[in-house]
Amino acid sequence: MAEAFDALVVGGGAAGLMCALTAGQRGRRVLVLEHANRVGKKIPMSGGGRCNFTNTGASPANYLSANPHFCKSALARYTPQDFLALVERHGIAWHEKELGQLFCDVSSKLIVKMLLDECAAAGVRIATSCSVEQVQREATGFRVRTTQGAFSAPALVVASGGLSIPSMGASGFGYALARQFGHAVLPTRAGLVPLTLSGKHAERLADLSGVALPVEARCGGASFRNAMLFTHRGVSGPAILQISSFWQPGEDLRLDLLPGIDALDTLQQQQCERPAAELKTVLADLLPRRFAQRLCEHWLQPLQPARPLRQFTLPQLREIAALLTAWPLVASGTEGYRTAEVTLGGVDTDGLSSATLQSKLVPGLYFIGEVVDVSGWLGGYNFQWAWASGHAAGSAL
């Protein structure tokens, strides 16, 4: 005999817990099924252990989806200010970093504790180390067989996440369940992920590991200004993680190495003020020295960068400026789901209600959070989608 609830939530991550506590506060009997040994495992590792729990500027423009309008309803009805009010109600100290990113002052574990305290107060039951073995549709709803017995409910919420960071238990379970009930699943790939280099590009830059500089990364009409970091395998840093969600292998990726600076104007000014200085010396003053040296060795060698600036013609300075403002970075791929912060693609939003996240095909079935084809930028946007989509479904159960 299956134990009965009003709603079963598969997945105890950010979206699942928000959904559960929201439904519990409305008097619903909710059971969260989490296959890991504890809930919210990915929350503590975010933001360097401080949890970038939302972004004050979160809007639909900060999300990628085959249907860019889908996220509007949920985001409008549960805002960053709503979540911040919850954080403050629990006395969690926070601070704002760059670009509207909000972090805990002390520890991201406080966010997990807050969600668990809210769930407990709302009477939500949580089963950890509980793997789902089978899901069946019945006349009265859903019957779910797990490693801890069978449970039934008229509503089933899939909050099982994407494929990112499999070491934390990520799997394709939610996609398989979606297909089981007739939903289309759009192709998935790693997003917010470091890029890898190979061949001569790797050889030229490999020993720069640890060197960082501000850049503006551009690809496919998108651009992000932030830091880039050279790694043993390629490039990372916020600007690269951001642009990785827009980049596909073979696409043109350009970096402005002097963001916010007019490169030609700067070079001409240096030519007037320091005519005897060598180009490589001037570039080493504008960029990290080792990286400037590499640019001179491999990209500017035909121009003889060891010459004094006074010997460079205006067309040559223009050529140098063009390289500095649109340096071609030829990436070979990404580091994949192993280090990706989000999974792009997922359950096709065409089959879901944007207001409730309920399936249009199967009444009582919901998909929320990362399993859905809605992916945010770096900087707290994916957490905000988790809170907003979880709240939308929890309010409808």
Describe the structure.
With 397 residues, the protein is α+β, with helices and mostly antiparallel strands. It folds into 2 domains: 3-190 and 341-396, FAD/NAD(P)-binding domain (3-Layer(bba) Sandwich), CATH 3.50.50.60; 194-335, Translation factors (Elongation Factor Tu (Ef-tu), domain 3, Beta Barrel), CATH 2.40.30. The chain is built from 12 helices and 23 strands. The strands form 6 sheets. It has a 7-stranded antiparallel sheet with strand order 19-18-15-16-17-14-20. Helix 8 (263-273) packs across helix 11 and helix 9 packs across helix 10 (289-298). It is elongated and about 85 Å long. The model has no long low-confidence stretch (mean pLDDT 96).
What descriptors fit this protein?
FAD/NAD(P)-binding domain, alpha+beta, FAD, about 400 residues, 2 domains, 7-stranded antiparallel beta sheet, 5-stranded parallel beta sheet
Brief account:
With 397 residues, the protein is an alpha+beta fold. It is 30% helix and 24% strand.
- Count, helices: 12
Supply the helix-strand structural class.
alpha+beta
Task: Specify the CATH architecture of the largest domain.
Answer: 3-Layer(bba) Sandwich
When the domains are counted, the total is 2
Q: What is the CATH C-level name of the largest domain? A: Alpha Beta
Q: Under CATH, the topology of the largest domain is which?
A: FAD/NAD(P)-binding domain
Average pLDDT for all residues: 96
Topology:
Layout: E1 3-4, E2 7-10, H1 14-25, E3 30-33, E4 52-55, E5 63-64, H2 72-77, H3 80-89, E6 94-96, E7 101-104, H4 109-121, E8 125-127, E9 132-138, E10 141-146, E11 149-153, E12 155-158, H5 173-180, E13 185-191, E14 195-196, H6 199-205, E15 212-219, E16 222-230, E17 234-236, H7 238-244, E18 254-256, H8 263-273, H9 279-286, H10 289-298, H11 314-325, E19 327-328, E20 333-334, E21 342-347, E22 365-367, E23 375-376, H12 381-396
Helix pairs in contact: 1-4, 1-12, 8-11, 9-10
